[in-house]
Amino acid sequence: METTPDNPAGPLAGRRRLIIVAVVLALLLIAGTVWATTRPGVSPTAAQATEAASAAPDTSGPDPSAAAADPDPSAAPASADPSAPPAPVPAAEPPQAPAPEAAPAVETPPAGSDEELAAVEQPVAPAVPLVGTAVVKTGVSAAITDVEAVNGEATGIGEVAGPALRFKITVKNDTAAEISLDPAVINVSYGADNSPASSLSGPGPEPFPATVAPGASATGIFVFGVPKDSRGSVKIFFNLDAGTPIAAFEGQAPA
Fold it and tell me: CB 3.0-4.6 Å disulfide test: which of 34, 73, 174, 249 passes with 236?
């Protein structure tokens, strides 16, 4: 501001007005502060606490340190590359197939049973004369008697009537125990090639009894078809059981 003849104060008067305005504003500010801190019902301590509370930062939100310490595993990282492919999902384990059932155990025949002994080839004892006696095992013997030629009768399935031989077998038990004749088997062969003969229903057959008592004898009568021209060599086999050698009788039969 320049000093002119019409404004002799110049710059000095302007500065005074500014000082006056500043003083007035300062007084008003002081007066307002004094009134706020001394109004009824509000103590300076409460007012200061209110101002401190309004000035303090809001801490009611989530604690950043807690979020950093325990991140949400389901949330994707903020810094993850959006163009990157998603993480592979672990494949579910395939269901396991049930364990196969154990195969049923095969029952093994007891040692010495008929099933086990039947699988073993039985030896044939040396032949004795056709009309003679053979030792079957200790205390047991078999004798063939009354060999005769007959006309065989066929009444059973597969039988063929014709020339036949009928003979008697007597089993003697000299042991102290009863023996069974149920498993006993009779077979006959004839000729140089030992052709097997077939059993016939008659005439007059008689099966063995079921058992032979100690010190007793039992007799059976049997009929087999044998051609007349093949009776020069006839063999009769007596098989008491699967655990005993087969007794053999051999010789010429009546024509």
Answer: 249
